[in-house]
Design a protein that fits this description.
The complex is a heterodimer. Chain A is an alpha+beta fold. Chain A has helices at 2-13, 18-34, 45-48, 148-154, 169-184, 202-222, 247-253, and strands at 58-64, 67-69, 74-81, 85-88, 92-94, 98-102, 108-116, 119-130, 158-159, 190-195, 230-236, 255-260. Classes of the chains: A alpha+beta, B alpha+beta. Chain A binds chain B through residues 8, 12, 17, 19-20, 23, 162-163, 198-204, 206-208, 210-211, 214, 231-238, 245, 247, and chain B through 42-43, 46, 233, 235-236, 251, 253-256, 276-277, 279-280, 293, 295, 298-300, 320-324, 338, 340, 343-345, 365, 367-368, 381, 383, 386-389, 394, 417-418, 436, 438, 462-463.
Chain lengths: 262, 469
């Protein structure tokens, strides 16, 4: 307790107000007076000082190439500094610097976490896997828009975490399926609408929805869909799909909605 | 009548030195709350940042002011007189610097001119007024004419502070505007030389069917009227410093885009958006630049352009949403805004060239900043316990920029958002949804210390923006 109180004072002392300095002096005096009678006396100030000087680690990770066909492999290359432990989701503990060849079966976010006593730093890289489409339709489908029902079956809405515009694994799978369908139907242009739940503020939610829609567009373009076939509109929280104040309702509103852009 | 008024004003000049001294005392009164706010908050910051006392809220330091009912010179002026009296009393009450004498305590005889004024009746109990506003109103030559007087009730030899005549076409709206002008003159004289706000306007968003239109109203909620008829979802109105243009954004085929409405021409004028989503415009105090959020290069960033949308330049470059800029209206050299670069949206400030980025909030969910006219404070909406399933609400806060100390202005009245400062820095208007439902949002006003809250509009109104003057 005393140590914690002392840390509080130490943190406050970085501010320059005389009042706070006086409080610090008073607290140090108090500790000096009472500390030697306690079993856990506070350490002297000089012992405390270095603890907060360790900078957090730096980390970066890259993938080469960033997009592959199914069955091909990709080289992950990561660099960190000052890290005491480094791990990559799905691979586990890894050396502080290194490379590794992986062959994911679908599009994957590789998430690197570097830690030391000063903090934690994260880095991400996305590997897009192009799944070859089994030719479902004859080759003369250049002008074929497909049916709305088929479109919505193959190009499904994707959902996001709270205050997030990162694609989830389910969203990755949806994008892979959507890209395959759109590559097989080059006449279709699509509208990606970015939506948010109704918590938070209207203006910020529009930018959040923009990033959600752009995340899907970027993934589709990486998977071979021409960018000029995709229109992106953020609706923020202005067009609510579900209007109840429940977790499931908020989840339904945090989505990218795909539709044929006619 | 004009000659009389001029003569009174000249005599007023003789008493000028005394008035100046009084004004200085009043300035001190107005500054003290802010100073004491900072001292108290600074002293107790480590323990309780959200408890403090403002001297304006005690009433003891306020000038005790009586507003007599005006005397009607002509029978046809009676309805206008009633509007004038009610508006004047409401303006002076809302100013936040007066201890108003209740109308039930004032003498029964309404003096119309200085000759009919018996100051002893007003300075003694129960009115005990230090100052008395009075006058007469009538219809003369097709004009509504109000003669307003302000007397110092404690100065028996030369009581008059000022006398002024107000004139306009005889209708109810003009009666209100004349009362606003008289109130502003009184507030200017007794309020430390800070111009009153009774003639200022508030622009806001009004739900009309499935659309949202831009509306405007007087500062007291009167005269609510539509400005746009676009049939679209239009949000974030921001009026230019000279009251001639309203910038806002509307949802169209390509998402939200900034639009510019001329209040002089009564129609939209050109604004270049150049791709991406463009929203949340904010005027620089010189009226020559507009800051806004644009995703024209992919990620939403803060951009600055001229009022036509040309000469656009990007001033932030960091992954994550950047939105809701607000200029320091005092200097024009700093911009506050909201960024999600570290996760949940936080309040930041920077120089207007994009340098010197400083994070102001230490957590929670912060949105909708508005920079105070004196440049010292930013009001914003903050949910400090924000998170899935977390308790707590979104309330209005004011932060002192120099120290990052903050105070909470709303408590337990539902979801609050979009604070906007009055031109005199004494009031804040904001949107409030008592049950948290966006569609139930209404516009409320309060003094900058959080007291005197009252609703100005009914449900279906949102995003208020107070004019610069």
């Amino acid at each position: 307790m005393l140590e914690r109180a002392y840390k509080e004072e130490l943190r406050m002392s970085t501010r320059t107000s005389i009042w706070n300095k006086a409080a610090l002096v008073a607290t140090v005096a108090l500790l000096a007076a009472s500390g030697c009678h306690k079993k856990q006396a506070a350490p002297p100030p000089s012992a405390m000082a270095p603890e907060n000087t360790m900078p957090p680690p730096t980390a970066s990770i890259t993938a080469d190439p960033p997009a592959i066909d199914l069955g091909k492999s990709v080289v992950l290359n990561w660099r960190t500094s000052n890290a005491t432990s480094v791990s990559i989701d799905g691979i586990g503990e890894v050396p502080v610097n290194g490379t590794q060849t992986v062959s994911p079966s679908n599009s994957t976010n590789f998430h690197l976490v570097a830690k030391n006593d000063g903090g934690t730093t994260e880095a991400n890289v996305r590997v897009t896997v192009r799944v070859p489409e089994v030719p479902a339709a004859p080759a003369d489908n250049e002008g074929d828009m497909g049916s709305d029902a088929m479109f919505h079956a193959k190009v499904q809405d994707i959902f996001f975490g709270y205050d997030s515009y990162d694609l989830t694994p389910q969203a990755d799978a949806s994008i892979t399926s959507a890209a395959a369908y759109l590559n097989a139907h080059p006449a279709i242009k699509i509208l990606i609408g970015g939506y948010c739940d109704d918590r938070g503020s209207a203006e910020y939610n529009i930018t959040l929805g923009e990033n959600r829609a752009n995340a899907a567009k970027t993934a589709l373009v990486s998977a071979g869909v021409a960018g000029n076939r995709i229109r992106v509109v953020s609706y923020g929280k202005e067009k609510q799909f579900c209007t109840e104040e429940t977790d499931s309702c908020w989840q339904q509103n945090r989505r990218d909605q795909f539709s044929i852009d006619r | 009548m004009n000659g009389t008024a001029k003569g009174m004003t000249e005599r007023d000049i003789v008493k000028r030195s005394e008035r100046v001294a009084k004004a200085k005392r009043v300035v001190m009164r107005m500054c003290l709350p802010l100073l004491s706010l900072m001292v108290v908050v600074a002293g107790t910051a480590a323990r309780a940042q959200d408890t403090f006392h403002l001297e304006t809220s005690s009433g003891a330091q306020s000038i005790r002011l009586a507003a007599a009912n005006f005397k009607s010179n002509t029978p046809d002026a009676l309805p206008f007189k009633n509007t004038f009296d009610a508006t004047l009393f409401a303006d002076l009450s809302a100013a936040g610097i007066f201890d108003m004498v209740s109308k039930s305590l004032i003498p029964q005889a309404a003096p119309g001119t200085p000759g009919e004024m018996n100051l002893a009746q007003w300075s003694s109990a129960p009115a005990s007024a230090a100052m008395v506003a009075f006058g007469n109103i009538g219809v003369q030559n097709g004009n509504l004419v109000a003669n307003g007087f302000l007397d110092d009730a404690k100065n028996t030899q030369y009581p008059q502070v000022f006398a002024k005549q107000y004139m306009g076409p005889p209708n109810d709206d003009v009666a209100r505007q004349l009362a606003h002008k008289f109130a502003d003159d009184i507030i200017f004289r007794l309020g430390g030389g800070v111009p009153g706000i009774a003639e200022s306007k508030i622009y806001y968003v009004k739900r009309v069917g499935g659309a949202k239109e831009i509306w405007g109203m007087d500062y007291d909620g009167a005269n609510q009227h539509a400005i746009t008829h676009l049939g679209q979802i239009s949000i974030s109105p921001r009026v230019s410093p000279d009251n001639s243009l309203i910038a806002f954004s509307s949802l169209g085929n390509n998402g939200f885009q900034i639009k510019m409405f001329s209040l002089l021409l009564g129609r939209l004028i050109h604004f270049s958006n150049v791709g991406g989503t463009n929203l949340s415009p904010a005027w620089a105090p010189n009226g020559q630049e507009l800051a806004f959020s644009s995703s024209r290069t992919g990620d939403p960033e803060i951009w600055v352009s001229d009022p036509q949308g040309e000469m656009a330049r990007r001033i932030t470059s960091y992954k994550g949403p950047d939105v809701s800029p607000t200029w320091n209206p005092k200097t024009g050299s700093q911009i506050g805004w909201i960024s999600g670069r570290t996760g949940l949206p936080q309040l930041y400030i920077m120089d207007s060239d994009g340098s010197g980025v400083t994070r102001m909030t230490d957590g929670g969910y912060a949105t909708s900043p508005s920079w105070s006219p004196n440049g010292q404070f930013i009001a914003f909406a903050w949910n400090r316990k924000y998170g899935p399933g977390a308790p707590g609400g979104q309330d209005i806060y004011v932060m002192e920029i120099a120290s990052k100390r903050w105070i909470q202005l709303t408590h337990d009245i539902g979801r609050c958002d979009f604070p906007s400062w009055s031109p005199d820095g004494r009031h804040i208007v904001f949107a409030n949804a008592p049950d948290g439902m966006d569609s139930h949002n209404r516009i409320m006003t309060m003094l900058a210390d959080g007291t005197g809250k009252r609703a100005l509009t009914g449900p279906g109104t949102d995003m208020p923006n107070w004019s610069w003057k």
